[in-house]
Amino acid sequence: xxxxxxxxxxxxxxxxxxxxxxxxxxxxxxxxxxxxxxxxxxxxxxxxxxxxxxxxxxxxxxxxxxxxxxxxxxxxxxxxxxxxxxxxxxxxxxxxxxxxxxxxxxxxxxxxxxxxxxxxxxxxxxxxxxxxxxxxxxxxxxxxxxxxxxxxxxxxxxxxxxxxxxxxxxxxxxxxxxxxxxxxxxxxxxxxxxxxxxxxxxxxxxxxxxxxxxxxxxxxxxxxxxxxxxxxxxxxxxxxxxxxxxxx
Length: 248
Known about the structure:
This protein is an alpha+beta fold. The chain has helices spanning 2-32, 119-123, 223-247; strands at 57-60, 64-65, 71-76, 81-91, 94-97, 104-107, 112-117, 126-128, 135-137, 145-154, 157-167. The longest helix is centred in the N-terminal third of the chain and has 31 residues, at 2-32.
């Protein structure tokens, strides 16, 4: 009995000691203002995403310009904007700039559409003379290629594209209008012969006889023959009548 009692006393003493120690530590923590350690969690920021490269598309719908149609480009700006820029014409000697050729841009909200340079606008285009002093009309028969430049923009991204168009413009044919031949000129009337000079010493009289012909009627009967037959008939009638009277 004594051993059990002693064991219980020891166990109670240890319990009291443990509780006392815990209370002391708790008081010290409140007094000194210390906070229990907190495990920190580090958050890694997500990597920045690089925007995809801006890739607009433009395609020539007119394979060659011959001076009798519009020049049309099919475009897909991928939702951005498009602006026609410089234009140049090329011949065997090099390139010359074209001045202010208006265009028609038709693009929907998705950025798909077309750009048109009308035939009239191209034919009325102007360039510079050899000294770059005066503006002159473009003689399209001298050039074989046009350079078109376009600028694209989407969300601070820019892209430029250059497209070349072959040309083959012939000079207009000269139309010859047939002329009506002139009527032959009416021959001039012969001049009246001049009168012979008068000879004061001798007087000469010239008589001019003009034979008038009876108008032709188209009758070709021999009148003399029928007149002779009529006369013979009359004479025969007279002779017969005379003999009859003598006989009576």
